[in-house]
Design goal:
Layout (H helix, E strand, L loop, with lengths): L9 H7 L23 H4 L9 H25 L26 H7 L7 H9 L10 H5 L3 H12 L21 H10 L11 H14 L3 H16 L8 H17 L20 H24 L1 H19 L1 H20 L1
């Protein structure tokens, strides 16, 4: 089942590089912006901000093509047929999509951008009249039920049993994600966040952001926001991110209740839970909650205050880890230069 999480894992946050872990879903109000953070200079070193949308699309397609070829090689070594499949790839430029969670008109339409978001709307506009058929579907249907399970586990990895005592989503590891995980890792191996050399630094950054969530200054700010939400009839949230996360948690429950698609089933007959009545109702709940959240953020100047706290803590982190961060930056710039040559 797909699991939806409002905050990006750090590796993906570094890969996206347009925002960072603490503010992955936030836009700064006033004069402060997340991308101007002290750590952004280092974490965004491998990201080509000047590349045109057309060039970004070309690179993304080339990367997926290479990944699919590696996946096919891996599956063949495991005794299965697999044809590279790139027909399901869609590309949307961030320049064409407005993400404005601090604007009332945007929140009225999208809430937090969970159930509905402008990216989905753009993707729907690009959908082909006839869906591209997966070239592996016929082969998959020719296998026995046991063989189909083995095929799926080889391709995607075996789904681990959830740990009831674990907090938060299960960490994604390419080693456990089958042939697709290995192929994805190999394609992005030049990126510093994938390197064993920088793993201690990446882990340290992750712990840094987690620890910052409990900073006394942030707790005080959340207290003011929580009191405002209580006055608005939403008394169940202690921290601002909890409001948005509650929507993603509810989305997960809807997905978990949906039976998985039978491999023998026609893919076109599968009903996406995102189109269900329950999801539409959740969208209404989301927009109402997000509007109250926005009003309380505005009343407490939450985003500016949050970023001031974040930037101050980041400055200390940079000073304490300057040498490793500089090396990370150099590696990112080198990886970007190699990518441009392809």
């Amino acid at each position: 089942m797909p699991t939806v999480e409002s905050r990006l894992p750090l590796a993906l946050a570094i890969l996206a590089l347009s925002t960072i872990a603490l503010s992955a879903c936030a836009q700064g109000g006033g004069g402060l912006k997340p991308e101007d953070s002290p750590l952004s200079e280092y974490l965004s070193a491998g990201y080509d901000r000047d590349a045109s949308p057309k060039e970004q699309e070309r690179r993304a397609k080339e990367q997926q093509k290479k990944q699919e070829e590696l996946t096919a090689d891996c599956m063949a070594k495991e005794g299965f047929e697999y044809k590279p499949f790139t027909g399901n790839m869609s590309f949307a430029s961030s320049e064409d999509v407005k993400w404005e969670p601090e604007e009332r008109s945007w929140v009225e339409k999208y809430g937090y951008g969970a159930v509905d978001n402008p990216m989905d709307q753009q993707m729907k506009g690009k959908e082909q009249e006839q869906p591209v058929e997966d070239p592996n579907q016929e082969y998959l249907q020719s296998l026995s039920e046991a063989e189909q399970q083995a095929y799926q586990e080889t391709l995607y990895g075996k789904m681990a049993d959830p740990d009831p005592q674990a907090e938060g989503p299960v960490e994604w590891k390419w080693q456990d994600a089958g042939c697709q995980g290995r192929a994805q890792h190999e394609v992005s191996a030049d990126q510093p966040w994938q390197s064993d050399e920088f793993k201690p630094l990446v882990d340290r950054i992750q712990k840094f952001y987690e620890k910052m969530q409990d900073a006394p200054e942030l707790k005080k700010l959340d207290g003011s926001w929580s009191a405002c939400m209580g006055d608005a009839g939403e008394s169940g949230f202690r921290k601002q991110p909890e409001a948005q996360q509650s929507i993603y948690d509810a989305m997960n429950k809807i997905y978990e209740q949906q039976a998985p698609m039978d491999p023998q089933q026609d893919p076109n007959s599968y009903q996406d839970p995102k189109d269900s009545a329950e999801m539409k109702k959740l969208g209404e709940t989301e927009r109402a909650l997000a509007l109250k959240d926005l009003a309380c953020r505005e009343k407490t100047s939450y985003r500016d205050a949050q970023l001031k706290i974040q930037f101050a803590n980041e400055e200390k982190f940079v000073a304490e880890n300057k040498k490793e961060l500089e090396a990370f930056k150099v590696a990112g710039e080198k990886a970007l230069a190699q990518e441009k040559k392809k």
